Amino acid sequence: MYFLIPLPYLQKISMKFSTQLFLSVIIFFTLNGCKKTEKLQNESFSKVKNEIEYATSLAIHPYEGYSVVTIKTPWPNAKKNYTYILKQKSGIIPDSLQKYNIIKVPLQSIVVTSTTIIPYLEMLDVEKRLVGFPHPDYISSAKTRVLIDKGAIKNIGQNEKLNLEMLIEMSPELVVTFGIDNNNPMLDNLSKSGLNVLIQADWMEQSPLGKAEWIKLYGALFGKEKEAKLQFDTIIKNYKNALALVATKKPTATVLCGSMYQDQWYVAKANSWGAQFLKDAKANYLWSDVPGTGSIGLSFEQVLEKAKAANYWIATGAYKTVAEMNAINPHYSQFDAFKTKQIYTFDGKIGPTGGTIYYESAPSRPDLVLKDYIKIFHPELLPNYTFTFAQKLN
Question: Which of 152, 164, 210, 221 could bond to 205 as cystine, CB 3.0-4.6 Å?
Answer without folding.
Answer: 210
